[in-house]
């Protein structure tokens, strides 16, 4: 049995939880929910990941691996999920990296609002982070719609989780207003049972 340390609100954890469901392997992965933050790492996370971040996967013999991209690749291989098809591997990895970079900016903005004292905040930095997200969404629509509409893979799962996180934590920014094609795609992909079962809402 694998143990996955995570939290229902974490989009990085969600990517792995979706993979497990798409692989039909929920009976092989026990999900252990923890509360951790950059300012107060959970003790049970620190013992298996010095960075204090989730997700962490504890393998059956006791050793741990992180982060979400490493865990996804590992589980894909061990559960034979087929979510990194060889024929389009570099596209899947680039899409996954794009989604994770959207998350890095989006999660960073949330942490800043939550933890940084008001007087130390820097609006130009926020704008620059949001500009990264906007450029990534523009590129997804311009270059990636045909890939996104193909058979499900880990790149698609990562993008779906990233867009859902924008809805969850940055709904005021209304990304859907100017990204209609992505909006339609996201509505369809979130109807998949694996996505519906892991929704943070
Ligand atoms: N690159 C990492 C990012 C993981 C991450 O930042 N997770 C957040 C939860 S959404 C976390 O653990 N934050 C606690 C911290 O930053 O110490 C991954 O893909 O797993």
Q: Specify the overall morphology.
A: globular
CATH T-level fold name of the largest domain = Glutathione S-transferase Yfyf (Class Pi), Chain A, domain 2
Poorly predicted runs: none
The overall average pLDDT, rounded, is 97
Helix-strand topology string? EHEHEEHHHHHHH
Question: What ligand species are in this complex?
Answer: glutathione
* Strand arrangement across the biggest beta sheet: 2-1-3-4
Mind telling me the C-alpha Rg?
17 Å
Number of helices: 9
Which structural class do the helices and strands define?
A: alpha+beta
- The CATH architecture designation of the largest domain is Up-down Bundle
What would you note in describing this structure?
The chain is α+β, with helices and mostly antiparallel strands. The chain folds into 2 domains: 2-78, Glutaredoxin (3-Layer(aba) Sandwich), CATH 3.40.30.10; 86-191, Glutathione S-transferase Yfyf (Class Pi), Chain A, domain 2, CATH 1.20.1050.10. It is 54% helix and 7% strand. The chain contains 9 helices and 4 strands; from the N terminus they run E-H-E-H-E-E-H-H-H-H-H-H-H. The chain has helices at 11-22, 43-46, 68-78, 89-115, 123-143, 145-148, 154-169, 180-189, 193-196; strands spanning 2-6, 29-33, 56-58, 64-65. Strands 2-1-3-4 form a 4-stranded mixed sheet. Helix 1 (11-22) links the parallel strand 1 and strand 2. Helix 1 packs across helix 7, helix 4 packs antiparallel against helix 5 (123-143) and helix 4 (89-115) runs parallel beside helix 7. The model has no long low-confidence stretch (mean pLDDT 97). Glutathione binds at residues 10, 12, 36-38, 41, 52-55, 67-69, 100, 107. Residues 10, 12, 36-38, 41, 52-55, 67-69, 100, 107 line the site of glutathione (GSH).
